[in-house]
Amino acid sequence: MKLSIEVSRDDAKPEQGPARVGWFLTEEKGAVLFDAPERVASRGASRAHAKSAARCPAVVQMESRYFMVRCPYDLHLGFGRDKDGKAVLINRAGTSSTIRGNKIAQVVTLVSEAEWRYADRPTIQLALPYCFIADEPIYLTQLAAFAHYRTDPLPGTIFGGRFPLHIWPRPLMWAFEWHQTGKDLVLRRGEPLFYVQFETHDPARAVQLVEAARTAELMGYMNELAAVTNYVNQTFSLFEAAERLRPAKLLSERIRD
Q: pTM of the entire structure?
């Protein structure tokens, strides 16, 4: 089914000019913790030489197509099992943690062991309020911050996903598979947490990221899609139904005073 698009800016067709993608937070509570997504760039790299890698068109093109989301929290976690053998997370920071102990469970969740992809790799999820939306067919891919060097490598891998953000706007989460359970997981506020990449029909088109307004139409549509993963296994099978419910226009740029 073809998505009907309402043109709202200078009567431009969706395929002309940059592809506009909106980002927003699902709620305003604690919004100051969450930085705006940033375009990936080699900051501080030398461009003095004409043949510098920092000036290579292929490198510049690649970097321009990834946007980075920074970690909003400081976390120092260990993995263990209680006296009954149940998998548990351990707050290694203890009383020195920047997050109150009774709030950590609201931020990070250890997925039920029956749902792990591999029996020896615990899965944790970091809840985040970041959402993306577009008014033309665009796919979002979430992936690791592969261009960021860590002096203390993560003891596992993150796994993201790919979905059509124009009909399936949903809060992203950071999902992590813990390969080395004997090694602690340390996340630092402000460090790159993950990247997002946007795919359009024309791979040569640039992407313009703007802050989106949380309009009544957008939030109402998201409410119609909310929590369906609790009731079906293959949410992609709902895309056609979601497209029928979708208002023609969901992306309105937020104008701050």
A: 0.85
